[in-house]
Design goal:
73% helix; globular
């Protein structure tokens, strides 16, 4: 898995992330022992902190320590991400997240849903304190996240799902928050509008790369790498880009289509993963992700700070390293 901090190579951002951790915990603790345990469960489990890393990098370019508002903006976007994980795991009936019990598995669906709502409320409170533009931006982003998720739910088990429908869904459920992370960092740093827009565009394109990569790994990755069961999307009827491309493959498509369209037990899940992994679907997905990575790097170049542009461009391309070639043809 990609180590975001290592790829960015911005030491001050690493230090800022260390400063962020106690703020993240403090932002959700309310003094109720039970609720505090639930809402800090996935914080304690770790995570890449990718979205706050983007917010802090956009704000500081690694040239200065983050100010308090920069850190709070980064906390706000991470809380939205955490809330989405709480809710997603309920929808997916997931039992593992970040190699620990999911919140719903440990405390039940009702607690997980309400705790996720609590995290969103805390995020909104922080955003409001940072000004009306950031508050409005975060509210709009939440709407996009919901639209993307609904679009994905509507397409469940549909073997006729199109690539266009797939891209529309991930633009909302993933890329929107990546774009907002970068934009909030640029706004708390009071950067010029051209820089704000360039960093927002980077975040959106980077989010597309990230989600396609995640969808490829769901096919070729391991549970240890993913922190959750592999092949989960296939089992739940979420047909992602590598699967859609495999279904369009004349050699692999007919056999794969015969398996899909309904829930999969473990043997069928493994067989479907193997078909996709040995088809042209992985290469097709990675090719499209590469185009988005190039778009992200181009947008980063317009972000004015050369050091930041290099760091962000390297990060976009690093997302795809170690996936192609050595694993795309492996039997799952």
């Amino acid at each position: 898995m990609v180590n975001v901090a290592n790829v960015l190579s911005l030491p001050l951002v690493d230090q800022d992330l260390a400063r962020l951790e106690p703020l993240l915990r403090e932002s959700v603790q309310c003094g109720d022992p039970f609720l505090d345990e639930v809402v800090t469960h996935l914080i304690s489990a770790g995570g890449k902190r990718l979205r706050p890393s983007l917010a802090l990098a956009a704000a500081t370019a690694g040239d200065r320590p983050a100010e308090y508002d920069d850190l709070r903006g980064a906390v706000a976007v991470e809380l939205v991400h955490l809330a989405s994980l709480y809710h997603d795991d309920v929808m997916d009936e997931a039992t593992i997240r970040r190699n620990v019990d999911s919140v719903n598995a440990r405390w039940g669906n009702l607690v997980a849903i309400v705790a996720g709502d609590f995290l969103l409320a805390r995020s909104a409170e922080i955003a409001a304190s940072l000004g009306t533009e950031i508050a409005g931006l975060l509210a709009s982003t939440l709407g996009q996240l919901c639209q993307g998720q609904i679009a994905e739910v509507q397409s469940a088990y549909q073997v006729e799902r199109t690539e266009e429908q797939y891209f529309d869904a991930i633009a909302g459920k993933t890329a929107a928050l990546m774009a907002t992370s970068c934009r909030i960092g640029a706004l708390t740093a009071r950067l010029g509008r051209d820089q704000v827009e360039a960093l927002t565009t980077f975040g959106r394109s980077f989010g597309m790369v990230f989600q396609i990569r995640d969808d490829v790994l769901d096919v070729v990755g391991t549970e240890e790498e993913l922190g959750k069961p592999a092949g989960q999307d296939l089992a739940e009827g979420i047909y992602t880009l590598p699967v859609l491309a495999a279904m369009a493959d004349p050699a692999a498509g007919p056999e794969l289509r015969d398996l899909l369209g309904s829930p999969l037990a473990q043997p069928e899940r493994d067989k479907a993963r193997a078909i996709v992994a040995t088809s042209g679907g992985i290469a097709r997905a990675l090719e499209r992700a590469g185009l988005y990575a190039a778009e992200a790097a181009e947008a980063a170049e317009a972000a004015a700070a050369p050091r930041l542009a290099r760091a962000l461009g390297n990060l976009a391309h690093a997302m795809l390293e170690g996936i192609a070639g050595d694993r795309s043809g492996r039997r799952a």
